[in-house]
Specification:
With 127 residues, the chain is mainly alpha-helical. The protein folds into 2 domains: 9-49; 57-114, Orthogonal Bundle (434 Repressor (Amino-terminal Domain)), CATH 1.10.260. The chain has 6 helices and no strands. It has helices at 9-22, 30-49, 57-68, 82-89, 97-107, 111-114. Helix 1 packs antiparallel against helix 2 (30-49). The longest helix is centred in the first third of the chain and has 20 residues, at 30-49. It starts with 8 loop residues before the first helix and ends in a 13-residue tail after the last helix.
């Protein structure tokens, strides 16, 4: 089985064609083993070539609420009182460790997303 590293987009395209050809190979067969190796190589190339940024924590919270069909009222008790919720969502107050824990446990937002600093909101310049 000749396998080469994926070094560029042309190699990547060829690897994807090979993966497609091997898809559905019988487990334990040489084709299945080749498929496993090709998928691993393609995933490694894609992680370096097409990195995905971790989302902003506040945007992640808003997205999760939208997914659940909930509004900001659902955050009362998770983040704190209503005022605290709006301070966090306006980016006037950072998430505390306790808030991060509760958001992770109750809304299932990955902690690694929540611990990142949120983007600062843009201040309006008075004319």
């Amino acid at each position: 089985m000749e396998i080469k590293p994926i070094k560029n987009d042309k190699d990547h395209a060829a690897a994807l064609r090979e993966i497609e050809r091997l898809w559905g190979a019988t487990m334990g067969s040489p084709e299945s083993d080749r498929l496993d190796v090709m998928v691993t190589l393609a995933e490694a190339y894609e992680r370096t070539r097409f990195p995905i940024d971790v989302p902003d924590p506040i945007e992640a919270i808003k997205f999760r609420l939208e997914q659940q069909g909930a509004d900001t009222k659902a955050l009362v008790g998770v983040i704190g009182n209503r005022t605290r919720v709006y301070e966090v969502l306006r980016r006037d107050r950072p998430l505390s460790l306790q808030m991060i824990r509760r958001l992770h446990e109750q809304l299932h937002i990955p902690a690694e997303v929540l611990i990142r600093p949120s983007r600062k909101r843009k201040r309006k310049i008075a004319a």
